[in-house]
Amino acid sequence: MSSYTTGMATNSVSRRSLLRAAGSLGIARRLPEPALAFQATGQITHEVAAGPTQEHTPEYTIKFGVIGLDHNHINGITNTIRRSGGELVSVYSTNAEALAGFQKRYNGVRVARSEDEILNDPSLQLVCSAAVPDLRAPLGVRAMHHGKDFLSDKPAVTTLDQLAEVRRTIQKTGRIFGIFYGRMESRATLYTGALLKEGAIGRVVQTVQLAPHRVNENTRPEWFWDPSRYGGTLCDLGSHQADEFVYFTGSTVAEVTMSQVANLNYRHRPKFQDFGDMMVHGNGGLGYFRVDWFTPGGMEAFGDERTFILGTEGYIELRKTIDIAGRPGGDHLLIVDRKSARHIDCKNLALPFGRQFVADIVNRTRVAQNQTAALLATELVLKGQKNARILSRP
Fold first, then answer.
1. pTM over 0.70
2. Could you tell me which CATH number the domain at 184-351+383-391 has?
3. What beta strand segments (E) does the chain contain?
């Protein structure tokens, strides 16, 4: 059994009552027959996911340093490790503005004079980074050769040559090359994984993921617009979706079926890719995902991320960031199986990744993240990016 279990229903809305309400508003006679048939059967239940709602007291402690502050995701990574038993000791960055902000946020952190000062510090067990993406994998390799584990923002690898070197170094050193995919901070995603392991919708057939993002053009550094630096939109944004595909389907072998990228709206940024999509297939299921930079200004969240999982006995939809014109907040899970349709609120669940990752560092285990699966997800987006068809603007 998983650490999460399904919670009790808090209320229900019968299809019959909805139908009566539609009739009173004069809507029912305008609905097609299939819609009326759907409304007339069963009930929708609303649940709160049952499971740990507070972070456990860390069982282990480590010391760690940070190298590279070029994306603000480093704050989330740092916060996760600190609340999970990590002591932040030192930081190094060539980005003066980001370094000043990091010092203010984490009062007392020592500023190292060089990267080597952190890598050669025998008291540190972990190096975390959100450097410019094309610099992350080489840094991780150096950290592992210095006897340290590594935790990177995504994308942690931007070329297949880098990936090969990372795999060789892991094999040689036995160190951890962790990738902080979005799944690690998505309660609904983690809870869905637990449901799938319990066979909630039978065998997974396909995952479909839609992941729009807000571009915030005026705040982006120059490397953000150059695929040679950030890896391209499939490598960058798509890394989250590839990780979820591997996680949800349990695939241990997978390949890219189709991939394409385009610059549809940023002609003044000629190298940028604002759209990409991929189809993948693995020994655990099929997958499709689309990523883009077209979140409109009226959206409250950075993007209306949605994941759909088709099973042989039901399906799941995740509304991870927002449910527009609906339930407040994020981490919404919708599941339909052979018995019922349910909405499960996952927002109060604890996030186990940080505590598990620190324990892995101490015990040399791989509970927080399966290393092989994490790099398989990376391999998929790297191949998809490399072989993508480049679309012209319609």
1. yes
2. 3.30.360.10
3. 9-14, 43-48, 62-69, 86-92, 110-111, 126-130, 149-153, 177-180, 204-212, 254-262, 275-282, 285-292, 306-311, 314-319, 332-336, 341-345, 389-391
